[in-house]
Amino acid sequence: MRYMAGLGGIRGSAAHRTYSVTVFVILAALENVAIGLPVPLYDPIARGLGVSEGDVSLVTAASFLVTAVAAVGWAYTGDRTNRKPLLMGGTLIWAVGFGGCGLAHGYLTYFALQMLASIGLGAVASVGFSVVSDLISPRRRGLVMSLWGLSHGVGTLGGTLVGGLLGSGSGPDDWRRPFLAMAALGLVAVVAYLFVYDIRRGQSEPELAPLFAAGGEYKHRINRSDVRGILNRRTNVWLILQGLTAQATFGSLVWLPRLLQAKAQAQGYPEATAIVVGSVFSVLFELGGALSIIGGLVGDRLQRRTPRGRALVAAIGVFAGVPFYVVLFFVPLTVHVPAGADKAGIVAAVLHSVVTSPTVAASFLFALVALALTSANSPNWFALLADVNPPEHRGTVYSMGNLVNGVGRAAGNSLVSVMFRVLTRALPPPLNYATGLAVFQIFFIPTGWMYYLASRTVPGDIDAVRDLLRARAGEAVARATVTDSPDEGQAVTTSP
């Protein structure tokens, strides 16, 4: 089908495409707002539901896994059908789940509704990745994927901040407000999806340009027999497996706000104040994730020189970030919050400490460097998945990687909480949190090594995909020239 301009020339225009990309990026951010939102509220949620802090953290760990498993089904369906209705349905499901969490009064109800929300969240990342990859030419994938990945990081920070600011307070039900706010945002997102541009599968691939120029459509779709081919592609294996160890560490880092909160409580601040202090510090320290754009740009530039470029940038970044994280965990924080200060006053005190306290300034610097280095992994991982897979496989292979990521993140999030409790016998807070997080940095070592191994296989896999797409486009155009001319306005299509 030809994509014609709609009413007023808006449909398919540059403005319409920009609007569509913006919606996809914002929804990816909201997904991660949902992930980070409960963490600074573990204590008040636990009290409100009559359970332990560990029980609440278990829900977060389980949600990682459920989201990842659900994403496989969403992605496979998206690689076979129209992706827009799937994204709308998934968003509606997680909005309902979060609204229910904000109204839940029992632990099992809260758990079940979080799992419902997690099922919906699985659609956003996997199907959304497939859509966004069709908007980006290979030459600029690192840059644009850095924005896609940055939306995830910004979302996690937003979740921490929204949870800490909206959910803190002396009232027993204050923790419910962020969940209800998320539900409202989800419903707004569903409406926004109604007006996004329907992006053609494979439209950004240079090898398919002759097909689209001839008025054709890329009609290849995934089937079950393709799964073996996906797993036989060696670069896919390394890109998928690295998530198990990488996310074990990243899953443990979900506890960073709790570490910073414990540092504030060690100075004698009450829990409500400490939650805000920890949440604001966490947001400040994780601003280095915004520098993933540099990692994407460097990956793009090096990739134009050697097809190993993106994988090498990711490997070096992961290895180099470890020592900066370890120092960050142990540097003491000193913040002076005036007695009786409201939330605005607490935030102002934290910001002031960045320029007046040497230890806070040092922590801020180490955090920026650590996040900047390890965040180079994200855009290059996204870009590599798109580079070594044809369009009809991308959502599924992303979901496979995301499933392994979910297992690693769930394991890291839950196991590090066990380590905290064990360490408490010898080390009081915040030292137990700092030590546990430092130990989990060891999982970054095999992560960097697997990126290095991927750098050795990626050149051949990229060439194979380009040859496949070029052959499919050539066959379709040649077939069209030897058959009867189609009726005027009829599109030339390939075989499924």
From TrEMBL:
Organism for this UniProt entry: Rugosimonospora acidiphila
Residue ranges constituting the Major facilitator superfamily (MFS) profile domain according to the UniProt record: 17-458
Stored PROSITE patterns: MFS
Membrane topology: Multi-pass membrane protein
The keyword Coiled coil is annotated on this UniProt entry: no
Xref: InterPro entries: MFS, MFS_dom, MFS_Efflux_Transporters, MFS_trans_sf, Tet-R_TetA/multi-R_MdtG-like
Keyword Transit peptide: no
Subcellular location: Cell membrane
Entry keyword set: Cell membrane, Membrane, Transmembrane, Transmembrane helix
Record field: transmembrane: 21-41, 56-74, 86-105, 111-132, 144-167, 179-197, 237-256, 276-299, 311-333, 345-373, 431-452
The protein, known as: Major facilitator superfamily (MFS) profile domain-containing protein
Pfam families listed in its UniProt record: MFS_1 (PF07690)
Major subcellular site: membrane
Source taxon at top rank: Bacteria
